[in-house]
Design a protein that fits this description.
single chain; alpha/beta; five-stranded parallel beta sheet; binds 2'-deoxycytidine-5'-monophosphate
Length: 206
């Protein structure tokens, strides 16, 4: 597919969006942008002492390649800077132009189908119960040698969900025309297959 085609994938923390988005992008030959990384990179700069808006305006490609963006501390900082409307605006143009690139794009985040790309050709909302999401994130962190406990991971996920859903600007919510996929009782293969069915039904092809 050489003309633009945007796949918007939103959902709460650790619902499987990242894995599903990567797989869908790979199967379609589309580019993929994990928009959470933008907020994490801003959060990391703020933890290092910068002002949130200055940090958002100064982001570079190298910021997104830092290997310390996947910690719970950076995730919390990301969720906090994501409440600030000016920070969200500063990151908007980059996301929109990525979405309309030739050859198709998959973007995953919280507000892609609602605010960044309301005209996206295909929209998914990927979710799962808080307990299932926390357990998956816990196993992921434990495999990397992180000693965070299950209870800490559940508290982090629940707190971020609440902040992401309750903020005034671009809160986490499913677009009215999104296909909702609840992955609580699904294997990752089944979740990817469900996402591919939904996206190809909207006309996406390689
Ligand atoms: O997807 P993630 O867990 O890496 O995102 C980290 C935080 O960034 C999340 O808690 C809220 C914020 N975020 C956002 O507000 N909008 C997006 N499109 C993506 C992430």
């Amino acid at each position: 597919m050489s003309e633009p085609f945007t796949v918007a994938i939103d959902g709460p923390a650790a619902a499987g969006k990242g894995t599903i988005s990567k797989a869908v992008a790979e199967q379609l030959g589309f580019a993929h942008l994990d928009t959470g990384l933008l907020y994490r990179a801003v959060g990391a700069r703020v933890l290092a002492g910068e002002e949130p808006l200055t940090a958002a305006q100064a982001l570079t490609r190298e910021d997104l390649e830092r290997d310390d963006l996947r910690t719970a501390e950076v995730a919390q900082a990301a969720s906090k800077v994501a409440v600030i409307a000016e920070v969200r605006s500063a990151l908007m143009e980059f996301q929109r132009s990525f979405a309309r690139r030739a050859g198709g794009a998959v973007l995953d985040g919280r507000d892609i189908g609602t605010v960044i790309c309301p005209q996206a050709e295909a929209k998914l909302f990927v979710t799962a119960s808080a307990e299932v999401r926390a357990e998956r994130r816990y196993l992921e962190l434990a495999a990397k040698g992180d000693r965070t406990t299950r209870a800490e991971v559940l508290a982090d996920v629940t707190e971020r969900d609440r902040r992401d859903r309750e903020r005034a600007t671009a809160p986490l919510e499913a677009a009215g025309d999104a296909v909702v996929i609840d992955t609580s009782d699904m294997s990752i293969e089944d979740a990817i297959a469900a996402a591919m069915r939904a996206v190809t039904a909207k006309g996406a092809r390689r």
